Amino acid sequence: MTKGYIFDYGGTLDTAGRHWGKVLWHAYSRHNIPVTEEQFREAYVHAERTLGSHPIIQPEYTFHKTLDTKLRIEMEYLMAEGYWNVSEDEYVKSHKTILEDLYEEVKRETSHSREVLTRINENHPMVLVSNFYGNISVVLKEFGLDNLFLNIIESAVVGIRKPDPRIFTLGVEALKLNPADTTVVGDSFYKDITPAKKAGCKTIWFKGEGWTDEKYDETIPDKIITDLSQIL
Fold first, then answer.
1. What is the DSSP letter of 162?
2. 64: which strand partners?
3. Which residues form a coiled coil (predicted)?
4. Cα 194 from chain centroid (whole Å)
């Protein structure tokens, strides 16, 4: 019986189970940025590695500012590599259009997540465990999710990143529960489901559009959902 929940954030509460790389790629496609998916993937990986290795995202950054920064790094890479030949005015316009498109999408998804989490929180304590940049508290407040969690375990703060199972153990300890009484909800099989199982927790896989077409053993998670409300 589940007595408490651990939730992932990115890809779980903000994009309905879809990998952020895919969410971004679809936005580029919607707005006719003339690059291939392979070229975009290069830019996406470059941006993630840049943000992961340099303290660019500051603790006070909102999600809007974080997304703004990530898009700039991606787009500047595409231009520098010669994949996207565009004028400064066109670049600025495209950046702003995609930024606002994605931000509105995330506002809709987090609003739905807030409704579901509020209902779960009536009977179950919840903790957030996330690989993030050190500003997750600001982001949660931005989307009205800040008062729902007993504690926040953020990789940039605790010095442990998924898929290390120890980060989920910290979440269990924050709940003051046994691992077997704790259910972890996440969109990444590799970073959420597998390590949470190793930590002794039950798991719910929020299955959405992944970064790759890799197949996983769907007998491993205790439950598979395609909408957060299916937890209720």
1. T
2. none
3. none
4. 17
CATH entry, 4-18+108-231, from 3.40.50.1000, 3.40.50.150, 3.10.20.520, 3.60.70.12? 3.40.50.1000
List CB contacts of 71: < 8 A, sequence separation 6 or more: 24, 95, 98, 99
In 3D space, the residue among 185, 228, 152 whose CA is nearest the CA of residue 7 turns out to be 185
Task: Return the bridge partners of 129, or none.
Answer: 153
d(CA 169, CA 195): 10
Q: What is this structure's pTM? A: 0.96
Taking the domains of the chain in order of start, what are their residue ranges? Answer: 4-18+108-231, 20-106
Does residue 47 contact residue 53 with C-beta atoms inside 8 Å? no
Type of residue at 82: G
The one-letter code for the residue type at 56 is I
Please choose, from the candidates 6, 53, 3, the residue with its C-alpha nearest in 3D space to the C-alpha of residue 167.
6
| Residue ranges of E strands in 13-160 | 126-130, 151-154
Helix (H) / strand (E) containing 158: helix 155-158
Closest CA to 10 of 154, 146, 125: 154
Could you report the per-residue pLDDT of 18-73, keeping only the tens digit for each? 999 999 999 999 999 999 999 999 999 999 999 999 999 999 999 999 999 999 99
